[in-house]
Design a protein that fits this description.
Belongs to the glycosyl hydrolase 37 family. This protein has 610 residues and is mostly helical. The protein has 22 helices and 16 strands. Strand 5, helix 8 (191-195) and strand 6 form a beta-alpha-beta unit.
């Protein structure tokens, strides 16, 4: 955004007058609880010594390892070793030997599972005109068979031996590093890649479920939704992922949106009636634990943000978190670790979106993360859609009281989104910073999330969003819409492009009444499909993220290598092929131009002949 636009954005804040009320915001964070109560997988000396010794290239490896003996016995043996070791710090060799004798390799909680409702020729294939794209879609459809997993019953009967959280139904895993189900999104190489496949978050799972439904695998999709409902019933919310060390943080709330997607294909009203109370439980988790009051002018608005009040390093990234906070005092360290978990709860781990220092002449780093200071546009857009759907669901079920309750909540949300996020100077919705009491003028695809969730009242919003996109440089990237315009080395920044963000923007623009918005939506879909297809031909793989620079390649940056798989990437591509399959082609623009020249020349020669 130009400097003058930044000034206008800032001036808007002072003009409307904004105050913020966040309970406990200024309290000291020292003494925050750990990620979970396990003295093996979440906190304690054993975890600290093993992770700081860096026995494995990825900290996640250790905390995914099942125990060979009871936790009490393992801790007792470890303490005995500590007691006889001078200084109490075991050598790397001692730790390697102890871990080898006390733990098994990760991934043994799972068994391969092939979905019974898979079919080789779902109807979506007939909607794709281009033969190469049709064959590719058939390959993606076939990948569902390799991504299926089922948690062994031993995890249910002996949960203390595992960090894995049991769920009763089979599931689709993301791919790559992640070997569990995750709410929002999916190698050591080969064996560890397979092992690290298996935990799918709800956000990730939303796009996987949409892909499954397009592949006519409604039973598998329903099973995944049942797993998330099981977690809500057990914990009161959906953890970030299916490991105990994720228990005290969630991710963007998509469960109600999943139910809506399933009902559109299955019309299973009985399933909705049996479980709508759990959809409401998840919604209330966000209202009760992740809300903030913002006053604009003389109006008070309640919105939601990511706020994980949990201390200590993230177990799955322990050594990185410890090193990052090494020069801080205890209070500052605990605060930073809580901020990192809050950013992880957003699914955008990590990004300049959460850095406090914008705009600044000094480059920001991960240590500048202040995710709890940001009220995000997209989170509130998702909850806006949730309120709309809950009102609609209760009307379907004949509960007019509940329907009116959520309709009123939706109206309050629409007013809050307009008052707090809509920025007239920028012509788009912008994240709001609680500490600076002003919007973040930076570009993120999430700025357009209200278009996707219909969380706006002004029908001119789509046209304004078009002008916002055309006024930036983001449409000049032909491999996808960049996640931001900041190069920080973090994976949720330039040069990476992420599948769900592409879909949200494309789908939001596509359903508007603006012809120009529809054109941009198609252009973005064409670019994304061609990027994915080109890399699939090169690597025979789908990736969790892609690089928008140059000729296109897998994404970069962040805490781990780019992951193959990849459930949500497959789901987004299938959705775009379903939307535009009759128009999309597999060729690059240059290839299509050459084909056009050849066709024109042929017609010209035929005219000469006649």
């Amino acid at each position: 955004m130009a400097c003058s636009a930044r000034i206008l954005v800032t001036a808007w804040c002072f003009f409307v007058g904004i105050s913020v009320s966040v309970p406990g915001w200024q309290e000291l964070v020292y003494g925050l609880p750990p990620p979970c109560e396990s003295y093996i997988y979440c906190t304690g000396d054993l975890l600290k010594q093993v992770q700081l010794a860096r026995l494995f290239s990825d900290d996640k490896h250790f905390v995914d390892m099942p125990l060979r003996e009871s936790p009490e016995l393992v801790l007792k043996k470890f303490q005995q070793l500590v007691n006889v070791t001078p200084g109490g710090i075991l050598s790397k060799e001692q730790l390697q030997q102890f871990v080898s004798s006390s733990f098994s390799d990760p991934g043994q909680e799972f068994e391969q599972w092939e979905p019974q409702d898979w079919m080789s020729s779902p109807q979506i294939l007939a909607k794709i005109s281009d033969q190469e794209l049709q064959a590719w879609a058939s390959d993606l459809n076939a990948k569902w068979k390799s991504l299926g997993r089922k948690i062994k019953d031993d995890v249910r009967t002996h949960p203390m031996f595992y960090s894995q959280i049991y769920v009763p139904h089979p599931l689709m895993v993301p791919g790559g590093r992640f070997i569990e189900y995750y709410y929002w999104t999916t190698s050591p190489k080969h064996l560890v890649s397979l092992v690290q496949l298996l935990l799918l978050c709800c956000r990730d799972s939303y796009w996987v479920i949409e892909g499954l439904l397009l592949s006519e695998m409604a039973a598998t999709a329903k099973g995944m939704i049942q797993n998330f409902l099981y977690l809500v019933e057990r914990y009161g919310h959906i953890p970030n992922g299916g490991r105990v060390y994720y228990l005290r943080r969630s991710q963007p709330p998509f469960l109600t949106l999943m139910m809506d997607a399933y009902l559109a294909h299955a019309n299973d009203t009985d399933f909705l009636r049996e479980n709508i109370h759990l959809l409401e439980v998840e919604y209330e988790f966000w209202q009760r634990n992740r809300s903030v009051s913002i006053t604009v002018g003389d109006r008070n608005h309640t919105l939601n943000y990511y706020n994980v009040q949990i201390g200590e390093p993230r177990p799955e990234s322990y050594s990185k978190d410890w090193e990052l906070a090494s020069d801080l005092n205890e209070d500052a360290r605990q605060e930073l670790w809580a901020e990192l978990k809050s950013a992880a709860e957003s699914g955008w781990d990590f990004s300049s979106r959460w850095f406090l220092s914008w705009p600044s002449s000094l480059p920001a780093t991960l240590k500048d993360t202040k995710a709890r200071a940001v009220v995000p546009v997209d989170l509130n857009a998702f909850l806006c859609k949730t309120e709309h759907l809950l009102a609609s669901f209760y009307r379907i079920l004949g509960n007019t009281t509940k329907a009116a309750q959520f309709q009123a909540a939706l109206q309050r949300r629409l007013e809050a989104v307009q008052a707090v996020f809509w920025n007239e100077a920028a012509g788009v919705w912008l994240d709001f910073n609680l500490l600076k009491k002003q919007p973040n003028p930076a570009f993120f695809p999430s700025n357009l999330a209200p278009l996707w969730t219909d969380c706006f009242s002004d029908q001119a919003a789509a046209e304004r969003a078009v002008r916002y996109l055309e006024g930036s440089t983001v449409l000049s990237y032909k491999n996808g819409l960049p996640t931001s315009l900041s190069r920080t080395g973090e994976q949720w920044d330039l040069p990476n492009a992420w599948p769900p963000l592409q879909h949200m923007v494309i789908a939001g623009l596509a359903k508007s009444s603006s012809s120009r918005a529809k054109e941009i939506a198609f252009d973005l879909a064409r670019n994304w499909v061609r990027t994915n297809f080109a890399l699939y031909k090169k690597y025979q793989a789908m990736f969790e993220k892609y690089n928008v620079d140059g000729d296109g390649k897998p994404g970069t940056g962040g805490e781990y290598q780019v992951q193959e798989g990849f459930g949500w990437t497959n789901g987004v591509v299938l959705q775009l092929l379903d939307l535009y399959g009759d128009r999309l082609t597999s060729g690059s623009p240059s290839t299509l131009f050459r084909a056009w020249i050849i066709a024109a020349c042929t017609i010209f020669l035929l005219d000469l002949k006649w």
